[in-house]
């Protein structure tokens, strides 16, 4: 099992390395249209600058407990849309079928190698939503 703070530190170091040493143009083939923020703070601000035109930044956590500050230029010139997502509320307002579709989509992404987890194997788990 990966310790979340350790994983976050590795991600932070990698993000900072890529951003500072390589630059966006060296590793981004297409414009990034979706940023997922579970951390907030200055690293997410740096990540938001890597997003392309008409992108979305979805915040679903604030593990560092620091405010998220986004430059106005991203909203004006890049047309950034920043929204929040609270999973508990989503579960309360959606039907069982929607919940099952959401989980199946996630499982499919993992199975296709488009999303990874250190402890999850779709072939070993049956998803059950209560």
Automatic annotation (TrEMBL):
One of its GO terms (cellular component) is mitochondrion. Keywords: NADP, Oxidoreductase. One of its GO terms (biological process) is fatty acid metabolic process. Gene3D superfamilies: NAD(P)-binding Rossmann-like Domain. One of its GO terms (molecular function) is oxidoreductase activity. SUPFAM superfamilies: NAD(P)-binding Rossmann-fold domains (SSF51735). PANTHER family: ENOYL-[ACYL-CARRIER-PROTEIN] REDUCTASE, MITOCHONDRIAL. This is NAD(P)-binding protein. It comes from Mycena venus.
